UniProtKB/TrEMBL annotation:
Protein name per UniProt: DUF427 domain-containing protein
Originating organism: Collimonas arenae
InterPro entries documented for this protein: DUF427 (IPR007361), DUF427_sf (IPR038694)
Spans through the membrane: none
DUF427 domain residues: 1-57
Pfam families for this protein: NTP_transf_9
Length: 68
């Protein structure tokens, strides 16, 4: 998360809840609002809390690393 910058952009899904967006400063304009997360999702989808999602056309690659 230290490489991401929270933006003012936000959306709401009636099923999942409030969605927060982040930009990747190193990616320039292409990576504005490239990442989103449901930080406090509704109970029915609580499993998505603390997960990040990426627009594939706004990043060069997505690499998952194991949680230590």
């Amino acid at each position: 998360m230290s490489l991401l910058q929270r933006t003012d952009h936000a959306t709401y899904c009636p099923y999942k809840g409030d969605c927060t967006y982040f930009s990747i400063p190193l990616g320039g304009n292409r990576s504005v609002n490239a990442v989103w997360s449901y930080e406090t999702p509704h109970a029915a989808v609580a499993a998505i809390k603390d997960h990040l999602a990426f627009y594939p056309d706004r990043v060069d690659a997505i690499e998952e690393r194991p949680v230590e």
